[in-house]
Amino acid sequence: MRKIVRNLVAGTGVLALTLSAGTASYAGGYHVTKPTLTGWASLPAGTFVAGSEPSGALVTGNLNGFTAPFADQPIQGFSGIADNGDGTFDVLSDNGYGNQANSGDFLLRVQRLAPVFRSNTVDVLGGINLTDPNNKVSWKLTRSDRVLTGADFDPESIVRASDGSYWIGEEFGPYLLHFDRSGRLLEAPHALDGVIAPETAARLGVTATARSSKGFEGMAQSPDGRYLYPLLEGTVTGDPAGSLRLNQFDLRTKQYTGKRWTYQLDNPDFAIGDAIAVSPDRFLVIERDNGQGATAVVKKIYEATAQRDGTLRKKLIVDLMNISNPRKLGGFGTTFTFPFQTIEDVVILDDRTIAVLNDNNFPFSTGRSATAADNNEWITIALPSSLRVDRRVLR
């Protein structure tokens, strides 16, 4: 059994909730009748990689209590997560400070973290910088040492392959990027035909077909490990409003197969935050509005099932603005909300339990307080019904 199970149960105790028959979940061996908070941990916004490099020299605007530039690299902006199965997780930092122009001194990095629910904290265990020492990127990078920065790529989703290497979906291409376990780029970036972000369009002198920051926001891996399913955050030019493309990429041939499905947003102004596999034809997708704090209304997780007609049928799994919290974990009330602008990480822990993390857009997002930069919160949620997870997803 995974170490996180012991940490979580020890930290929250047994929930005195309605009993029902079936498999136990993270709710301390009891089933729940509605999505219920079973763990809460927080990494302070002002957490940095000790002894790293200065960052944020070009950051402007309201920094919500912080002063730029920063002496070190912030550990922030969690945009993707991979479960190591031992209570630790590899978490992908975002591209820096919101755009290509101001993030050239933000080093792209995979952080290794572990939530400790007994103390409501998150341990930082290390991490790796992403680099291109073998010149797999054909265009000029920001740094001559080929350490990758937020001006080079905007990483938003991460999958770990069976050999320990990482596949990362990003938004400036959008591209799929393949790194070894030490963070070295293994291949030239894989583009998607017909989808060109403004950053790449400007470099190539062509017309963009996708909006900025609307590339590969989520990426699932098939349970057998053969396919990737990157999901675009925004609609491609010419597609129906609010429709998002989910493409299939074959890890054997390193090519797109031509198979594609469509995820329809509830509102064209909404966005997705993550997409992960539940089984060969089912996915969990975070869908959200752009609000935070008092203006946050729609923050949901859907199960999306692939249909023969090329669509994805949606079923609500969790409303992140209405989570039961009978033990008042984290010091919150009996109804817990996750009112962050960008919620970009979901991971399946067992058949009835998921973990969800926010991207705090350090230091800009203010979902918990209008005057203070958000922390990165890490929550676990017990579900009232089994996800019927393919066991290979949990290996």
TrEMBL record:
Is Signal there in the keyword field?
A: yes
**Keyword RNA-binding found:** no
Cite the Phytase-like domain residue spans from the record.
73-362
Q: Give start-end of the signal peptide.
A: 1-26
Name the UniProt key words of this record, in alphabetical order: Signal
Its protein name is Esterase-like activity of phytase family protein
A single Pfam family, by name? Phytase-like
Q: Which domain of life is it from?
A: Bacteria
